[in-house]
Design goal:
heterodimer, A: alpha/beta, Rossmann fold, five-stranded parallel beta sheet, 7 strands, B: mainly alpha, 2 domains, globular
Chain lengths: 296, 496
């Protein structure tokens, strides 16, 4: 029964923010790309793997995970190396909240099909689930009515199972929406508290890439300028990225002051570029990557 | 531990096996096991309040013995008053201490005095309202000589602490269970399967209907100022169904659990939302509490007032009606306050008292009017209309029951009646899930309608359906419970 539910649910292309195809590719060794993109939603909507692939003549896959900080991104990295070909280049996109410890797990349903007996996943998803969810079958599906309905939909209306992400990329054809800015205005100035454990994990990741001979590029994608002012310790967080960039001699591309960050028409909210903005940003990124002159 | 938790399932199953296979020598060993299990169950929440429960129960046992053994009426009365005072003081201290302190501060503030009374907020022991009333009914029945004091301390303690009923009822009077405790319970396959069927139904009603509707009702009530009138109306409907499903679901699990041990407990709900008038509603809703207040407050108060009245009319009202009004007001004030230390519960209680008084007043004029107009009092359409009106009046009162303050309750009603009925409800959550829950709720009421003449809605499944159909039904209900369980919510009546 557990196997039936898990294998059925994992076939959904759109449920749980469309993350199942990404997890499936990771576990089934189907990523196998020269260039891999890591990050949060700002990776998966900003960095177009097709433009990158075309320009850099390489295979590219976007492993951005919506709503998650570096801990979950690192977990995907571990799975990538375990089940897939080692990439030549990793583009690690960064956010002002990359090292912020979250109190709950965003979109926990994305883990459901893969949890049983998965110790590595248990370690990385430390909130929302109990250890019995990983040890005993079916328990984690208790009360998961949306997941159950999705499984029913997959069997009754298979034509509705349309992919929302292509090689992990999900561009947004949206115009500017003021909701996020309004919310930020109401909350007022925010101080980002970076978790030292996550920063240590990041350093571990940097040195692992170095010892594995994987070329790493740190990228801070554009953030609409008016949204940046709500973070009181903006420079302090960016300094953490710069510090590690210098320490490990890893290129850091910071686009927070790029001209793109001043152009509202390319954003759908203060933190995310729309499709046009993403394409423009990807081309800028390619130009900067080419100047690095990484060996083939 | 909640009834819908893995811990309770393991606990109840273990006690069941030990009860029927190891402790079944005689009724004393059965009672002893149930008592220890009940204490373990209660201590699971907070072991400190177990000491309070045991202490109060032992005191009640001793006082009842003294009442029975004292020959003089004066002496019996003194022991009885002592018992009343101890139980009520215990309840008032834990339940109403914060209410009185806050009320005193508010009163002082209205006279311009700002008091800063420092003090610890008192924790409310779980189930205190319920076990206090069980204890009181025991003492009252002994005092009135309805029963003799029970010399078996285990039976007395068990009648107060029995784990299926201690947290949220039914308020099972000791006089009705002593006869069951004093004999060895014999394993009955029919009774146990009936109990399991009742537990299954209670679980479905609680975790699928109540816990899912709670998500919508809570959102609407907690943010009522942001919603339009039609949404608030739906919020009211959701809550009305939620509280019924929550409490009746719990009661079914409790009564079904009792059956697992060969014990019959009082039915607590008799399909109240099918009532055609408010009087009928209160014969069907929280039956154990209504009967308690009727037998120990309303009737004695009515007799007491009637003895004191000399005239046929009081303030131009017929004496019997005056007695009814006076006794009802007091009874419903106390009923409201029993539910909680908040003015909202007082308003709720008074509203129901008002409904009952109006109902009483209109009985004869209505009958005369219907006779004159040739309206058949038992016509289906009339019953349907009256049932809808009754449900609506009850739902309006629930607004105060649910709202944190009287002001919130009033504002909710004002906004609900202020318009925007032709707009779409603004429900923020998944429409598909809401649709499924609505369908399941309608199915729930349908099953209740067809099973309304039975103790619980699916009681007749064994005799009225083929075994294959029956097991398919069980399996479907289990699958629905598994996948459609709402976010875990405490039973609403635990707060009382």
């Amino acid at each position: 029964m557990d196997h039936f539910l898990s294998s059925s649910l994992s076939k959904s292309n759109s449920y749980a923010d469309g993350e199942y195809p990404i997890w499936n590719c990771l576990y089934n060794g189907q990523v196998n790309s020269d260039i891999v993109i890591y990050g949060s939603s700002r990776a998966l909507v900003h960095v177009d793997p097709f433009i990158l692939a075309d320009s850099l003549k390489s295979t590219v896959f976007n492993l951005g995970i919506n709503g998650h900080s570096f801990r979950s991104q690192y977990f995907r990295h571990v799975l990538l190396l375990k089940f897939n070909k080692k990439p030549r280049i990793i583009i690690q996109t960064l956010d002002i909240t990359s090292f912020e410890k979250s109190s709950d797990l965003y979109n926990p349903d994305q883990y459901l099909p893969y949890m049983l007996g998965n110790k590595e996943m248990e370690a990385s998803t430390f909130t929302s689930f109990s250890s019995s969810d990983f040890k005993f079958p079916l328990i984690r599906y208790y009360g998961k009515k949306e997941a159950f309905l999705e499984i029913c939909k997959l069997y009754l209306k298979p034509e509705s199972n349309i992919p929302v992400r292509n090689r992990g990329y999900q561009p947004k054809d949206l115009t500017w929406n003021d909701d996020l800015m309004e919310a930020q205005r109401k909350l007022g100035m925010l101080e980002i508290k970076s978790d030292t454990a996550l920063i240590k994990l990041f350093e571990v990741f940097l040195s692992e890439c170095d010892s594995s001979n994987i070329k790493l590029i740190l990228v801070f994608p554009p953030v609409y300028k008016e949204g940046q002012i709500f973070v009181s310790n903006w420079d302090e967080v960016i300094d953490i990225f710069r510090q590690y960039s210098n320490k490990y001699d890893i290129p850091l591309f910071d686009y927070s002051n790029d001209t793109l960050s001043f152009q509202k028409e390319y954003f759908y909210n203060s933190g995310h570029l729309n499709r046009n903005g993403a394409e423009l940003f990807t081309r800028k990124l390619i130009k900067d990557i080419k100047e690095l002159k990484f060996p083939e | 531990m909640l009834f819908n938790s893995i811990e309770f399932a393991i606990f109840a199953s273990s006690v069941f096996v030990i009860y029927w296979f190891l402790f079944n020598k005689n009724h004393k060993s059965q009672n002893a096991l149930l008592l220890i299990s009940s204490w373990v169950f209660y201590a699971w929440w907070d072991w400190r309040f177990l000491l309070l429960l045991v202490g109060v129960s032992v005191i009640n046992y001793l006082i009842a013995i003294r009442i029975s053994s004292t020959s003089s009426n004066y002496g019996r009365k003194n022991w009885f008053i002592l018992g009343l005072v101890i139980n009520l003081a215990n309840l008032i201290f834990f339940k109403y201490n914060n209410f009185f302190i806050d009320g005193f501060i508010d009163l002082a503030a209205s006279f311009g005095y700002n008091l800063h009374l420092s003090g610890t907020k008192v924790i409310l022991p779980l189930g205190i309202s319920f076990y206090t009333f069980i204890s009181l009914s025991y003492l009252i029945d002994v005092h009135k000589k309805t029963i003799n004091a029970n010399n078996d301390i285990v039976e007395v303690l068990l009648s107060i602490s029995f784990f299926p009923i201690i947290l949220a009822g039914p308020i099972q009077r000791p006089s009705s269970v002593f006869s069951q405790f004093s004999v060895k319970r014999i394993f009955s396959y029919d009774m146990i399967t009936c109990g399991m069927r009742q537990i299954l139904w209670g679980l479905f009603v609680k975790v699928v209907i109540a816990d899912n509707l709670a998500i919508y009702a809570d959102d609407i009530f907690d943010n009522y100022s942001h919603y339009n009138g039609i949404t608030l109306f739906f919020g009211l409907l959701f809550y009305s169904v939620q509280i019924y499903a929550d409490f009746s679901g719990y009661s079914n699990i409790a009564i079904g659990s009792g059956k697992l041990f060969g014990l019959n407990l009082i039915q607590n709900f008799n399909y109240p939302y099918f009532s055609r008038n408010i009087a009928e509603f209160w014969k069907r809703w929280h039956i154990s509490l209504t009967q308690w207040f009727r037998d120990y407050v309303f009737l004695p108060l009515s007799f007491s007032i009637s003895w004191k009245l000399k005239n046929e009319r009081v303030f131009y009202i017929k004496a019997d009606l005056f007695i009814y009004i006076a006794a009802s007001i007091v009874t419903w004030i106390l009923t409201g306050l029993w539910h909680g230390a908040n003015y909202t519960f007082l308003i709720w209680g008074l509203l129901h008292g008002f409904y009952l008084i109006i109902f009483r007043i209109q009985i004869k004029p209505r009958k005369r009017l219907f006779n004159k107009l040739g309206i058949n009092n038992n016509s289906g359409i009339l019953i349907f209309i009256e049932s809808i009106i009754t449900f609506f009046l009850i739902s309006l009162a629930w607004v105060f029951f649910r709202s944190p303050t009287v002001e919130d309750g009033v504002n909710y009603l004002i906004l609900m009646f202020s318009g925007a009925y032709f707009a779409l409800p603004e429900i923020a959550y998944s429409r598909l899930v809401l649709l499924i829950i609505t369908i399941l709720t309608l199915a729930f009421f349908s099953v209740e309608w067809f099973g309304r003449n039975m103790e619980f809605a699916i009681a007749g499944l064994k005799t009225k359906t083929h075994v294959v159909v029956r097991w398919m039904f069980y399996y479907c209900v289990l699958v629905i419970i598994f996948f459609f369980a709402g976010l875990s919510q405490k039973f609403i009546y635990f707060q009382f």
